[in-house]
Hints:
Elements: E1 7-13, E2 16-21, E3 27-32, E4 37-40, H1 46-59, E5 64-67, H2 73-76, E6 87-90, H3 93-114, H4 118-125, E7 134-136, E8 143-147, E9 152-156, E10 168-171, E11 176-178, H5 197-208, E12 214-216, H6 225-250
Parallel strand pairs: 4-5, 5-6, 6-7, 11-12
Antiparallel strand pairs: 1-2, 2-3, 3-4, 8-9, 9-10, 10-11
Helix pairs in contact: 3-4, 5-6
Amino acid sequence: MDGQGHGRWVDLADGVYARRHADLDLTTGLVLGTERALVIDTRGDDGQGAELAAAVRAVTPLPLLVVITHAHFDHCFGTSAFPGAPVHAQAGCAAALTVTAAAQRAEWVRHYRAAGDATTADALAATVPVAPDVGVCPRPGSVHTLDLGGRTVELVHPGPAHTGHDLVAHVPDVGVLFAGDLLENGAPPSFGPDAYPRDWAGAVALLLARGANTYVPGHGDPMTPHEAAAQHAELAGIARRWRRCGEDRRR
Ligand SMILES: [Zn+2]
């Protein structure tokens, strides 16, 4: 595994995999049915997407569907590597990507150059992200079901949290839930300017209520329900402090 390319598959259940990537400790997903396979997130540039697509093709020849968990570059700038695959995202994701793509690219090209990683900086600078073309789950709590053949995957928008357009993918028959950046293992949840600190814990509570056995974060190793619950408690504490700050400001 290295920063440019190679990742490794983690076997989570029959036909359900996480893929771990060194760059940003990113975690993507792959779910196999009998007729179709679902790729969850596409990595951060054209080249990284191509590496992921080749790794997927080494596992399965099935027609692909793609789900984007949210419009942050590291999760979706690699979508060009999956031509012809319907790309699902929460209804607000495409607009968020259109509005923020150039600024995200500029910020992270600077980041990679400052870190001495010219290869990744150049690859990102040359990438024009492909927008998702199937908007789903317009309201908090709404569910969109994908039929992969012999297996369904439920896409859920748990409400505003890490962004206003987060989408998670639950594979109920094996109890695996791909949570995007609503959960992060090995790092505190990442609060960008587009995050909803007051609402985030409630969204994670909705994921916990689904009773999965394995929660796959957007960064880091798959988590147990206990670890996911601990992160929920941390987020609830942040929300309480945030509310107190708001009350202070109103005085
Ligand atoms: Zn993110």
